[in-house]
Amino acid sequence: MTILCDDLYYLVRLYRTQFRASGKRPQRAFVEHHRIVDAIEAGDAELSELLMRRHVSASRENVAASYALTLGEEKWLPLGLGDAR
Description:
mainly alpha
């Protein structure tokens, strides 16, 4: 498990460096992290999982949008992500 987490940590750092979050995403991610921690502290496994899945999904969409912009393929962006720059 530790090896998996270590590998994941470096991959996340790579994506963060390569596809810097801009706009309001960093602030939203900060709030998402706090909500996840609050749910864990409250012992609410179901809410923790839901919030984590939403967070990962939002992060994935942000990376995909940033990547599409680097390729000049704005037409492939999900709705609402055309302003990911």
